[in-house]
């Protein structure tokens, strides 16, 4: 987390005044932006004296733009940006306007900020990134927008978290957000990140965790996207009700059959070629996979659309 000392240094570097924390109140610009009062905000910004305070921060380091993004006020956000408000400014926690817009699932604000040059990876001074918080909270549309903007899906998204368990893919699995999980894999998230570098032992891989949890809906995509098959065949079967028991037992039996199959039968040449081609393309070019000079069906297969 960004420290008070670091925050003061940032303020000083930007030639902004920072009154004592207990005396800093929201300005009229702050209040209009947060309240979504576009008319008042427009009137205030027409005054040169107010315009000079467009980057003013309150006691939490929030500019009017940051508060507009927090509240999801698209019109106010556009108005502030059109008058020169910076989109990558951080608050006292290192959170950017994009971060709070993603966290609160304000799709319109996310669109605007990314279109106006917001860094999809957020600030290095924040404890986590926009992508990580979107994956944790299940905001699939936000994840897709960040992916389209070129976010690094394999970045360790929490400071101090090494390897796989600090990635958006891992946290989307932890919170069982399957749609987010699949978007990240299609965007190039490495299912074995951390294992290949030796940071994580194979038995603690995401694939093994998915097997232990016992849901084939997470296990199968990991295998399809090239996760290393080195499995502990422990499948979750503990249940709390007859209905859940029937559902979980069926899923467990399907998973056991699938695990036995992938351990006894080599992956098809077709699947191996898809994995190899996607690795050659690299994460940054995967979004252009459908523009390859190949038959439409093959392009869809490489993009995991079929």
Q: How many strand elements?
A: 0
How would you sum up the global shape?
Answer: elongated
Beta percentage is under 5%
- Poorly predicted regions: 14-23, 159-163, 235-240
Calculate the terminal CA-CA distance, rounded to whole Å. 42 Å
As a percent range, the share of helical residues equals 40-55%
Number of helices: 17
**SS-based class:** mainly alpha
Largest sheet: none
What is the CA-atom radius of gyration, in angstroms?
23 Å
> Could you tell me the mean pLDDT?
83
What series of H and E elements makes up the topology?
A: HHHHHHHHHHHHHHHHH
Explain how this protein is built.
The protein is mostly helical. Among the domains are: 194-265, no CATH class; 268-306. The protein has 17 helices and no strands. It has helices at 4-13, 28-35, 38-45, 48-51, 64-71, 74-82, 97-103, 107-115, 130-137, 140-148, 168-174, 178-186, 206-213, 216-224, 242-264, 269-281, 296-302. Helix 3 runs parallel beside helix 6. The protein starts with a helix and ends with a helix.
Q: Which descriptors would you attach to this protein?
A:
single chain, 306 residues, mainly alpha, 0% strand, elongated
What is the compact description of this entry?
This protein has about 300 residues and is mainly alpha-helical. Helices cover about 50% and strands about 0% of the residues. It has helices at about 5-15, 30-35, 40-45, 50, 65-70, 75-80, 95-105, 105-115, 130-135, 140-150, 170-175, 180-185, 205-215, 215-225, 240-265, 270-280, 295-300.
């Amino acid at each position: 987390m960004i420290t008070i000392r670091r925050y003061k240094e940032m303020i000083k570097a930007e030639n902004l005044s920072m009154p004592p924390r207990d005396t800093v109140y929201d300005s009229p610009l702050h209040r209009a932006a947060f309240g979504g009062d576009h008319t008042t905000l427009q009137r205030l910004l027409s005054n040169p004296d107010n315009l000079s305070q467009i980057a003013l921060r309150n006691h939490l380091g929030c500019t009017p733009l940051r508060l507009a993004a927090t509240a999801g006020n698209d019109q106010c956000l556009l108005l502030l940006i059109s008058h020169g408000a910076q989109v990558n400014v951080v608050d006292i926690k290192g959170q950017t306007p994009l971060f709070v817009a993603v966290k609160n699932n304000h799709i319109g604000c996310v669109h605007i900020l990314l279109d106006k040059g917001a860094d999809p990876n957020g600030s290095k001074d924040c404890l986590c990134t926009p992508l990580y918080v979107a994956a944790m909270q299940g905001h699939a549309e936000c994840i897709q927008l960040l992916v389209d903007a070129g976010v690094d899906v394999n970045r360790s998204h929490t400071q101090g978290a090494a390897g796989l368990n600090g990635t958006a893919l891992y946290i989307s699995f932890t919170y069982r957000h399957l749609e987010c999980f699949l978007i990240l894999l299609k965007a190039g998230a490495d299912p074995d990140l951390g294992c290949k570098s030796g940071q994580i032992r194979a038995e603690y891989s995401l694939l093994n965790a998915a097997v232990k949890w016992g849901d084939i809906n997470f296990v199968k995509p990991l295998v399809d996207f090239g996760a290393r098959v080195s499995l502990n065949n422990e499948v979750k079967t503990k249940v709390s009700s007859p209905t859940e028991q029937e559902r979980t037992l069926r899923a467990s039996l399907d998973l056991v059959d699938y695990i036995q199959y992938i351990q006894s039968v080599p992956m098809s040449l077709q699947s191996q070629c898809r994995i190899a081609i996607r690795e050659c393309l690299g994460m940054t070019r995967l979004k252009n996979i459908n523009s390859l000079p190949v038959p439409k069906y093959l392009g869809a297969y490489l993009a995991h659309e079929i």
